Amino acid sequence: MPIVQLSEIHLYYELYGAPEAPPLVLLNGALDTIESDWEQQLPAFARHYRVLAYDHRGHGRSSAASTFSGYMQLAHDLVALLDALGIPQAHFCGFSDGGITLLYFALQYPERICTLILAGAQYTNDERTLAMLTKMTPERIETRIPAWAASLAQLHDTHHTPGYWQKLMRQMMTFWSQQPNLTLEQLATIAAPTLIVSGERDQFGHIDQQVAMRRALPHAELCILPAAGHPVMNEQPELFRHAALDFLARNS
């Protein structure tokens, strides 16, 4: 099993595509894994890029983490993984928490970035996102969305212990209400070409936030996909794939 050992955890990763192709790094969303977020996109991406996908700390086949201090911690995990694999610079595509992590990463490590694709990400928690976050509890998911609970158990418990996904979620809830807490002024300093993608029905990375990010980021494009909610790359896989590959081709 391919892993990189960091100071306190190990990260599970997978590589696809020709070794000499330009690197493209995929970041999953919270409570997600490589397969749940990127399975539909990997074959097409790997035809053009050397794709690196990994399970975030505590997720899937990566080891359990004692703490989650926030998105900057996840950004530091990312740069440690890149250093361990000898990747000085890459294209990046992140969904939800993965996209938020990339915003923090871009502020701290701008020299590592060729381009950014942010799918279903928000830069701050406004009233709408906070209202959605209050509904994100293990108890509510088990009661109201049992199919999702079963999926989370398959993604996480099978690599850890029964009930692990609930523990993981409670760990992440400790910073969800406080972060992301970026400002539009901070976003204005991110110079990398950026594609912002969201589903028109997304309640986390909702359209108002996407438009605000488009206006703040100096080299950004905005793509709102129809008939899609938060997991836009799964609910509109072909449209997402076309938008992502077109953007990458124009900015490579």
Give a description of the structure.
- With 252 residues, this protein is of the alpha/beta class.
- It has a single domain (3-126, 181-250), classed as Alpha/Beta hydrolase fold, catalytic domain (Rossmann fold).
- The protein is built from twelve helices and eight strands.
- The chain has helices at 34-38, 42-46, 71-84, 97-108, 127-133, 138-144, 146-156, 164-176, 184-187, 207-216, 232-235, 237-250, and strands at 3-5, 10-16, 23-27, 50-54, 90-95, 113-119, 194-199, 220-225.
- Strand 5 (90-95), helix 4 (97-108) and strand 6 form a beta-alpha-beta unit.
- Helix 3 (71-84) packs across helix 4 (97-108) and helix 6 (138-144) packs across helix 7 (146-156).
- The longest helix has 14 residues, at 71-84.
- The chain is globular.
- It starts with a strand and ends with a helix.
Q: Count up the domains.
A: 1
The CATH homologous superfamily is called Alpha/Beta hydrolase fold, catalytic domain
Major β-sheet profile: 8 strands, mixed
Summed up, the helix count is 12
Strand content: 15-25%
- Walk across the major sheet and give the strand order: 1-2-4-3-5-6-7-8
> What pattern of helices and strands is seen along the backbone?
EEEHHEHEHEHHHHHEHEHH
